[in-house]
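Why should sequence recovery work at all? Because a backbone constrains its sequence more than one might expect. Tight turns favour small or flexible residues, buried strands favour hydrophobic ones, and helices have their own preferences. The token representation captures these environments compactly. In the example below, the structure is given first.
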């Protein structure tokens, strides 16, 4: 998974932008190697 400051999603390649617990993800069912996560706030333990 790529962790980036700002993520780019390409809809034509099947990317979907998802927000979970304040963290932005790009997931892709067709090509799972295209997963990305945007650095969010520090996670609480």
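From this structural description, the recovered sequence reads:
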């Amino acid at each position: 998974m790529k962790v980036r400051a700002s993520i780019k999603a390409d809809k034509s390649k099947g990317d979907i932008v998802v927000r979970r617990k304040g963290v932005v993800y790009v997931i892709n069912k067709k090509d799972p190697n295209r997963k990305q996560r945007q650095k969010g706030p520090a996670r609480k333990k």
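A few observations help interpret the result. The beta strands are 2-4, 15-20, 23-28, 36-38.
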